[in-house]
Fold each of these.
Amino acid sequence: MSKKLIKAIADMKEEEALRLVKEMVQSGAEPMAIMEAAREAMDIVGKRYEEGTYYLPELILAGEMLGRITEIIKPELTKMPEVKRRGKVVIGTVKGDIHDIGKNIVAFMLDANGFEVLDLGVDVPPQKFVQAIQEAQPQVVGLSGFLTLAFDTMKETVEAIKAAGLRDKVKIMIGGGQVNESIKEYTGADAYGRDAVAGVSLAKQWVGVK
Amino acid sequence: MDKQLSAAEKQEALWQGKLSPKDPAGNPLQFQSPQAEQAYKERILRFKDAIQMEKLPDRVPVTVFPSMFPWLSAGMTVQEAMYDYGKCAEVFKKFVLDYEPDVHWGAYAPGPGRFFEILDYKLYSWPGHGVAPEFSYQCNEGEYMMADEYDALIQDPSGYFINVYLPRVFGALGGFQMLPFFPGILEMYGLALSFIPFGLPPVQATFQALFEAGAEALKWVGPIGGADGELAVSGFPNILGGFTKAPFDVIGDTLRGTKGIMLDIYRQPDKLIKAMEALTPLMIKMGVGSARQTGNPLIFVPLHKGADGFLSDEQFKKFYWPTLKEVILGLIEGGCVPLPALEGFWNTRLKVVQDIPRGKTLWMVDQSDMAEVKKTLGKKACLLGNVPSSLLNLGTPQEVRDYVKKIIDVAGKDGGLIVCNGAFFDQARPENVKAMVDAAKEYGVYK
């Protein structure tokens, strides 16, 4: 049953996946085992995205399926399964910019790759990043921005992190819209990523995952 | 325009109209000097020749197609540009006269701030309304059309917009929900019943807001449209005839939103396709109508969710391209020159989108590989753009000149190129923008 569920989710068969989950719940399956299967399916989805066979429709539908499955088994769950995390990432769209699609995709992919992701949302002031870094102590910080105004607020954010004495504690990656290597230089970030796959591989590299 | 005219004749009529501009009273426009008149005509013909790819223009044309740069670089905030219409127009005129691009695109980008307030516009945040004064307005992505509303949209797109969609994105248009079904207004018997809504306070309040909004729009368009006229007198034509959108983006940007449309690809693909097909003739009508109204053939088509990374190639071919192609062909048929903007990267889509008639379109290229674009789409269509925002922002004038020279070498040797920024930008170093224009004039001469 678990195998079937993994395949249904990974192959984007939403109705079938939900039907299987309900059947599994009725036949007394461990809710934790269902969550495990869903997690495993998310790994496959993430890999297919990285390989270029899956795109946004699949990532978004996978996220929806995970949400709906969690809803179904929530009453049965006594505790959420412990997932071994590879590292922690604080992510957000910088001050002045309210675009979030790209940032959400990166956050989703980081999560699917085993990172704990603290998403601060959009229009995030530098001090809020600083505070989140102090509290959550991530290894990686992701700054997103779509508009040209973000070049300056990314720079401000990196400077605020530096001024708070936290620059050596985190690696900073930037991305979105018109961001490229020269913007990376300008902002003082450690790297830029053109897409979510690049963001994940940077984060993995920085926390030492092969 | 006569229905009997061919597509090419309709387009030619628009160009000819553009080349013989009129003043607001309908008389031939009085240029400030014979030189200005000559420059005005040369600039239009330079664009036209580059687009049509039949003969080489005298040099590679150049333009600047900015977002808020003209106002920010003049020391204004976006908020001031949105609320002080006179100053907005003045600053824009100075921008064109200082930078001297071949053509300009008008001072319409900031829009009238007060007008958006009157209508309580919710789709965007703007300075003073969710965005700081110095930043540009930005779209609030959301699900403004629900998943179960496709049938309503498909059956009657205009009715859906009036009764359902517009009241959701404009707080002041709530009364539209109560408007009658207009195709039901047929016979004398029972006719008055259809008009009862107009007697009700919520509908009357909505119409009151519309009167105010209309008056504000008029107040704004005076100086903003006036800037077009004054710049024409000085020899600088506005080339923009209006805009329309790819049906996939109509639904994906502001109706269902990104998340909604991506889910619909799996959950209700047939309805999504039917809805795009229903929107296609309306998007053509929007572009053709606006070209005729403005007398400008170029219809801008910003392309968003077909870019690399959003959809697979198969999904692109099934969901994005067919109705966009229909829109492009329909605009051409109506005498327009479609100007689709390949925002972001489109490297994987080039082989698909090159399936269009030659010399009838102009494509704005953002960050796609210019050499690849030239080898594919560039064989069929003139290309505009590709000077990166990052370079205009952080580079030196020399680096900008080198970049312009490079794209002329790569994509402009045999015509079919217009130098321009690749994406709409707010911030940039003025000397870099100037260098872009000057470099095209210097390196772009065809011998």
Note: The longest helix of chain B spans residues 201-233.
Amino acid sequence: MRLNTRLNFNRWMPAFFIVPVVLGLFCLNYIPSFYAFYLSFQHWNLLEAPQWVGLENYHQLLASPAFFQTIRQTAWYVGGVVIFELLFSLVIATALHRITRGKRIFQVLAFLPYVTPAMAASLIFMWIFQPEQGLLNSSLQAVGLLKSPIAWLFTPNTALVAVMSLEVWKATGYNMLLILGALQALPQHIDEAATLDGASGLRKWWWVTLPQLMPTVLLVGMMTTIHALQAFDAIYLLTQGGPNRATTVLAYALYETAFQRFEIGHATALGFIIFSIIAVLTLMQWTLTQRKPL
Amino acid sequence: MQIPTFKTLPFIQEKSPLVVLLSMLLIFSLLWMAYQSWHAVLGGVPNGETNLTLSSWGTLEELKTLTTQVHDFEEAHPTLHVKIRYMPDLYTQSLQMLIASNQTPDVMMLNSLDVQRFCQAGLLEDASPLIHQERNAFFPTALTSMTAPDGTLCAVPRDVSNLVVYVNQDLLQQLPAHTKGLVKPSWHLADLPKIAESVANLHRQPKTWTISFYQSPALFWLPFVWSEGGDVFKNKTLKLNANAVKAVADYKALPYTPYLAPDRQEIGNTTMSDLFLQGRLLFFLSGRWSVPFLRKNARFQWDVLPFPQGKAGSRVGIDSTGYAVSSRSLHLKDAQALTRFLSRADSQKAWVHSGLIVPARQALAASDAFLQRGQSPQYADYFITAMSTGVPSAYPKNWTSLGQSLNSAMDAYFNTPDLSLAEAFEDAQIKGAMPDAS
């Protein structure tokens, strides 16, 4: 008798393949998530046994001015990153769509920042923003736009913009590829019809191309928003949330609360607030992308 | 369309024994990994031998020293095996994660801040029996910093850390004689602005400053407070006295005084040790840990001086690093044997050799093994004399949280010219830290 018949393969083999994945999801994803939610009602310093405190962690968060300062900064950060990433991605994708020679080289060049490790990118940006001999200050001083050097990463008014610029530089290439793919898939006849009707240049792009791109732009916008809400590495590497907490956004605040203050309950409560924001945005993205094209 | 079933998949039909074999292999691998993890947690081996875990941080050079000592210990105790959990970065975070996941190492290298926190959480064994016959061999301040509020000694100190002022001798020689005369072991904080005037007159490019300036951690600005008779703790809570408020304000003014201390706005993320190494700082406040680095990299003559005196003398903080035995260890006696071995005079001597530490044992600190005459710094004795006037660390249980709030308040205070200390504390939600109005 064949082995697969003896062991009745067809009955239990599917389960055999699916169970490890489901187990993995439960053990590494769902159970920790539920446990984290449970922890958000406790005080725990990772040393002693957790203590049940009810809603105190959420209450403390919502009563803290620092939390609302963090929310404001996160909103500025996310808003800036999304606007500039979308803008640059659209411009670069449109330009690359039109050029006929060297398209591949420019695509690779535009995508390179995305594959640059965060650490290497941060070192480059540290040098760019260095007050003495930094690229930005030296260039601005050379063309007479700046009299005395600015410590971009150490001035509360400029630090967040400096960190944003790294994120925009890194992610624009990826978003550009998505938009370029959508551009290349657009039907040519609409564009040709618009040309025959006398539309040209920017007007045609604004009234004909962009509306067709909107589903992709919305998707990219939502993905960028969700990604920006989780921003951590650039801030950790460049400013550590400073100066004067000017670059402390939600994800960094979570890290700081959990692993510098060791207030795990507080940190998980913060984590669930971030989770709620991302869940709402994901729902919005889902709703928007389900809409029929314009 | 017919939905494919497993029966229709060719590799299921044709090569089912192979699939079964691979599946079994996968299952056994998972079981083997689970067994290994369980085994590592329990630390036992079937043939009566014992596995101990020892956690530590440090450079690769330090790891090499530790590995040699562990090897010597294993040779002396053939039934004991020591696994070093080397965590060079984010040590405290990693260690607390291990503790939270019930994988506390049997022996932990800890600084006095963590010793105090861990001990007050009941995680450390009493270390007194490990040194009871030679308690006097250790610096009393080192033992104090490893002692919990209830008087329990929670770790055996390996080294003591305090701060001294590193001096760029070549730069000092360029200053006028009257300024050089100010730079002596009994010098004063009030002399710093006068020295800065002479540094300014050197007109060096790139710009050169008099002394290093740190916004955090508190370790670096507290000597300016303590030396002026200030204090920031009362009954284990943050409570500044009037002297402390004035001293902190004076410290904040250092970068605003020309050529006295570098401002972050001018230097960005260049570190103080880099500035000193570049010859752009006359004085650099740091601990013994800078000695190997400067010996290797400095291209100028340098030495050390005690921290300058204020109204209350020269007072820097004294911390310790040492070995602590986990109260959760399943092999308490063996873990104590390892701690005793690592805390011997011979073991401490191996660390002293590199110039990295001030040993916690007094006799070793007074010997040439530490003083290393003929090498910089020539006046290594100042690391020892600082001990008699220093302030042993005494951290409250909630220091990590309190310290973060303090750092946050001081970050705002130092970075905002018009912000008062009271406003900075209020913004950071630190209550009751300012002196009473009366």
Note: Chain B is about 45% helix and 15% strand.
